[in-house]
Amino acid sequence: MDTINNFNSHVMGSYGRYPLVMEKGSGAVCCDENGKRYIDFGSGIGVNSLGYCDEKWADAVCAQVRTLQHSSNYYYTGVQARFAEKLCAITGYDKVFFCNSGAEANECAIKIARKYSFDKYGKGRSDIITLENSFHGRTMATLSATGQEVFHNYFFPFLEGFINVPAGDISALKAALGDSVCAVMIEYIQGEGGVNVLDKEFVDALYELCAEKDILVIADEVQTGVGRTGKFLAGEHFGKHADITTLAKGIAGGIPMGACLAGEKVSAVLTPGTHGSTFGGNPIACAGGLAVLEKAGSREFLDEVSKKAEYIKASVSSFEETVSVSGIGLMIGIMLRSKKAADVAAEAQEKGLLVLTAKEKVRLLPPLTISYEELDEGLNILKEILKK
Ligand SMILES: *Cc1c(COP(=O)(O)O)cnc(C)c1O
């Protein structure tokens, strides 16, 4: 049986997949089982932050595999300590909880917010405001948090205690921030929602209103974090430091990992027995994460990300099909004049380029390490498709 038939016979059909079997990769290029090469402007949805099989990253991961692949959280490991230390130093957070995905990082953030409020104010202050068009994950709690009706189907009942407010609507936010609210959760740039950057005035007002009432701000930086926008955290573009920030996707360069970062105010909320994860802080993931931070934690690397982003934006803006370009850094949304984003993605794939879509936009999340040669190759294909 060929791979696709074999796969579909045994793996649940929860994804719409392209008929393409990926085999290997190097840099920003991956190859399918037939040896066809693709420039990857999606990097596994922002996960392969250092591209495919970065040498230092692969060495670090392999060395860890051969030393200690796992030790339960009953014990300490040096690699988790070093990774946590570096992550806190780079982000300015006090402490971190490690888990295995973006949804889990957000689950942790939700639990911290509710327990912080419970410890200080008692019951009845557990609501969390999220924004319309947001995306926070696929677990029951994070689906409930997600502000898109299409996700609120089939799996009833959803969790109580999430209130949606339109992004950018300061008066609606003000009205929603009642006495039952413990936190507001935002993406500075809505990724799945269509690469929409929040207004600076809205973010300013949000932080101010929350501070007045000791309401926590949770920044879901699962997609925007770890250098994606040319700053280590997207909050830096807004001059903001949330009480809690969640990371995942690119954090360990392709090894499953999520992180929930807590500022001093909330870093002692989780006490022994209140939260946990068997795999959380796994040594292999931490080794991969350290290799990512070695690169993405430096100012020069992040400046380079911003330069590449400007290069892409200048090119993409000149296409006839381009109405507008949104996003910050290497998180880019292209609004099209007449073509459908899904059709562009399919045509690009045909021509050897992988792109993503987000709502009606073509979305680009190339590896942060992509070379200008690889960029040119991909942009030339995109130009062929979008010039008219
Ligand atoms: C991808 C994503 C998630 C979910 O991450 P998983 O690792 O799939 O659980 C949550 N929030 C945002 C902003 C995301 O982009």
Commentary on this structure:
The protein is of the alpha/beta class. 36% of the residues lie in helices and 19% in strands. It has two domains: 2-53 and 299-387, Aspartate Aminotransferase, domain 1, CATH 3.90.1150; 68-296, Type I PLP-dependent aspartate aminotransferase-like (Major domain) (Aspartate Aminotransferase, domain 2, 3-Layer(aba) Sandwich), CATH 3.40.640. The strands form four sheets. It has a seven-stranded mixed beta sheet with strand order 4-12-11-10-7-5-6, with helices on both faces. Strands 1-2-3-15 form a four-stranded mixed beta sheet. It is globular and about 60 Å long. Pyridoxal-5'-phosphate is lined by residues 101-103, 106, 135-137, 187, 191-192, 220, 222-223, 248-249.
